Amino acid sequence: MASLSLSFSSSIVPSSIPHHKSTKIHTQDSTFRVTCFAISSPPSKPVVKKRHWKKGEFPGTSETSFDDSTRRTPIKNIKRKLEKKNSAKAWVNTVTESLSEQIDKKQWLQALQVFDMLREQTFYKPKEGAYMKLIVLLGKSGQPHRAHRLFTTMIEEGLEPTPHLYTALLAAYCRSNLIDEAFSVLNEMKRLPLCQPDVFTYSTLIKVCVDAFKFDLVELLYEEMAERSITPNTVTQNIVLGGYGKAGKFDQMEKVLSSMLESTTCKPDVWTMNTIISVFGNKGQIDMMEKWYEKFRNFGIEPETRTFNILIGAYGKKRMYDKMSSVMEYMRKLQFPWTTSTYNNVIEAFADAGDVRHMECTFDQMRAEGMKADTKTFCCLINGYANAGHFHKVISSVQLAGKFEIPENVAFYNAVLSACAKADDLMEMERVFKRMKDNQCQPDETTYMIMIEAYRKDGMNDKIYYLEQEKQTLITDKKIVSHSEDEIYCSDS
């Protein structure tokens, strides 16, 4: 096979790429040459056997260096005390470790239940760090009202709030697009002398306004920051850049970028590069993506793994498999690791095309290299099997996700619901929807759109009516917290 190269930059791809086995994918439009990613993994390091020290022997010394008179046998009373102490701590360690485990797994309901058990014990006094982790977890899990109740409980138990805790609570509201509540938290912070908002607080609030395309609020927040002598940092500017790009306000985007280039304290970085090229990559404007990549390289900004993943994702969506393969080869040459995101982008490209064979090949190599799959991986697999009409493999993918303890978020359920709709299995779709709500995973706009379209296809207008009513209750009015939610978790206030 001839050497592959990217047409837009010699700085990305080496002058020659080693030959490797390839296959052709035939579509209705044309024939694509796709690299089979059968690249051998780097050799594993030799396993060094650890030495088990003998009784009386210490590392770096010999047993013969001590005579019998220098050796002491453990005192029985001290030994019993140590065993008793360790036994007393065993339950504490088990429960606190369980709390950390539930947080790491992003299982917010189980984490709150374990936290309640701990708070009932006299020996456990939760500190700021525990509340911070739980508030952040609840925010990421779409549970801002629970985060607020936990924050209130913390204050009632005598812990002083900090700017970081307030910012975490504000971020929880922002993640659920509750802008009014987020601004209420900001106003409360401004009233407390020891909890004044900082650049991170404003950046978090600016992001939710940018995502909602409320650029008038962004300008007001910038003015407020100037009044408080808070200078926007590179993160803040990158957020605004991405917002202008998504909204198609490219003139404003270039204006912000120009101000960053002229600034001495807020210079563009690799995240700026990633933000700009992802804007054009997501819009399918490959030429503009390549042009801006070149500009940032001329600015002296070097790409990173995420930069290459963005390029791979953009090429994959346009089915430009040669360029996608070339970037992956170049990553190998520069010793940039292929990450879960790298594989997800390739799997998604084949899934969108309904190319099950190459999708499975990529997934198998991902597992062979010891790369851990995540929720997006299985969303792509489910979508790919559904697009190809292999609905029996959708079931096996869901079962495998359960075996791997993959978090089942809104995107995961939406992928399964979409597969059921494509298979015209409305009964199974309703069962998945019920399980979604039973697992405290709140549906979003996409969830209802999938189900309404499936019902409309079969002319089930009565179910469409009830579903739209439920949608108004659960999505439009997010301020309402149902009584059933309160029964699951009640704070000891």
Automatic annotation (TrEMBL):
Renumbered residue ranges of the record's region Disordered: 1-24
PPR repeat start-end pairs: 127-161, 162-196, 198-232, 233-268, 269-303, 304-338, 339-373, 409-443
Question: Low complexity compositional bias: what residue ranges?
Answer: 1-17
Q: Which GO terms describe its molecular function?
A: mRNA binding
Q: Which residues form a coiled coil?
A: none
* Keywords tagged on the record: Repeat
Q: Which PANTHER family match?
A: BNAA05G30910D PROTEIN, EXPRESSED PROTEIN
To which protein family does this belong? Answer: Belongs to the PPR family. P subfamily.
Protein name in UniProt:
Pentacotripeptide-repeat region of PRORP domain-containing protein
Q: Which organism is it from?
A: Vigna angularis var. angularis
Query: Where is the organism placed in the taxonomic lineage, from the top?
Result: Eukaryota, Viridiplantae, Streptophyta, Embryophyta, Tracheophyta
